[in-house]
Every structure is written in C-alpha cells, then in structure tokens.
Amino acid sequence: MDDLTHLPPLDRLRAIMAALRDPATGCPWDVEQSFATIAPYTIEEAYEVADAIERQDWAELKGELGDLLFQSVFHARMAEEAGLFDLDDVATAISDKMIARHPHVFGSESNAKSAEQQVADWESVKAAERAAKARGGVLDDVALGLPALMRAEKLQKRAARVGFDWPDIGHVVDKIAEEARELAEARDTLPQDKIEEEMGDLLFVMANLARHLKVDPETALRRANAKFTRRFAYIEAALALHGKRPEDSDLPEMDALWDRAKADGL
C-alpha cells in the first residue's frame, strides 16, 4: 500500500479506513462489520471518553477522542460503500445544524442572553426540527439505544416541556417514598418480574429527582461508583496490612474501615 504519511490527518484517516474495508486486500474483520456490529463499540468508546474526562487524564483523552473519531469514520465509510452518504456529508450536516441552532452567533440575533435562555432557544429549535421530520409523538425520537438512566431523564424532560411534570421537588420526593414502599411490599408478596417492575419505577422517579435538581444522573452515578471503588480499595489495603483479604473479614470490621476512608476524604 502507498505511504499515507504525506496526507493531511483526516484524509489519512479516511484512506486508512478505506484500506481496511477493501474487500480484496483489507482486514477480514473490518470488512465483515456492519452498522449494527460496530454500534456497541461506538457506545463503548463514548464512555471511555467520559471516563478519561472524569479522571482528568488529558493524555488518555486525546487517544480516546481519536478512537471515537475513528468510529464516525467507520460508520461513514460503510455508508459511502452503500451509496447513502460519506464523511463530507456528515461534516456538512453537523455544520449546518450548528449554524441553524446558534442564530445568536452566526445570525442576526443578539447573543446577550443568559445560558438558560440559550438552552430554551436551543430546545425550541430542536422542537421545530422534530416537527419538520413529521414525528408523531412527543417522545418518539428519544433514542432507544441510550443507557436506561439517561433515557429516563430525557423522556421526562421531553414530557415536562409539554406540561407533564410535577410542579416541585416535594411531589417527586413523595413519589420516591411511595415507590420505595411498593418495592418493599413487592419483595414479600409478588413474583420476581413484578419486583423488577417496581424497582424500575423507583429508578425512574430517582432520575426525575435528578432532573429537578439539575443533576445529570449518569454523571452522579459514575461519581458514586468511583467513590465506592476508592473506599473499597482502602478497605482492601488496610486489611492487607494485617495479612487479610475481604473474605477473611466481617461486615463490622469493613464498615469501620469504610468510615475511616470516608473520614480521610476518599
């Protein structure tokens, strides 16, 4: 294959993708992939970008953004092969969308607006775009492939824009208490599928509480996961000093170490 180092970076990446997908000389694995088989990798790469940001690992972020960019190039190449669109079309579409959604930057509207007003304007533009696509229902284009917690928050936000929402946080907290009681009752009286349903109801309302508090539930849960990991690692390290592992300990001892980790700011 010809040397590609002389090409501009994005052109080089496109050429690499085309070579990988070449039916005669490409990589067999890359050649046999489809939109459906690549989609899980795309989602995974997006999460790895978020993970690098959470850890503030900027060197790793550069690599993860490259991996995510490669996913877009991969999908665009498959689309080009199918005669659907190419990477230039993708770039043109997002450029057009950003210009249309920012009239206060690229148009005649004043940009002397609060961030809140700009968000409201953004949502109005998106609503008009959805109407132009002739989507039937308010919730129709909330992507099915989103993580469940993120999708719950987006469904509720969409419903709230047409007035289907509790007026204040107090009502949400009351609903959480109600759902928690129903879950406790289900545990003792109902089959497993109903327990799962009640658990889903409780999680759904928790996502609603996050929205009312202007907290991203995915971010909040990722941070809670990271905190749990740090504190449990502290427990393991403390036990190891005495030649023990968690399975050699008991709950009171590990709880005390957990409290120590918490006191140490972990």
From TrEMBL:
Catalytic activity: ATP + H2O = AMP + diphosphate + H(+)
Example GO BP: dATP catabolic process
Native organism: Roseicyclus marinus
Residues annotated as domain NTP pyrophosphohydrolase MazG-like: 33-106, 174-231
GO molecular function ontology, one term from the record: ATP diphosphatase activity
Similarity field: Belongs to the nucleoside triphosphate pyrophosphohydrolase family.
InterPro entries per UniProt: MazG-like_dom (IPR004518), NTP-PPase_MazG-like_C (IPR048011), NTP-PPase_MazG-like_N (IPR048015), NTP_PyrPHydrolase_MazG (IPR011551)
Stored PANTHER family: NUCLEOSIDE TRIPHOSPHATE PYROPHOSPHOHYDROLASE
This enzyme's EC code(s): 3.6.1.8
Name of this chain's protein: Nucleoside triphosphate pyrophosphohydrolase
Class in the EC hierarchy, top level: hydrolase
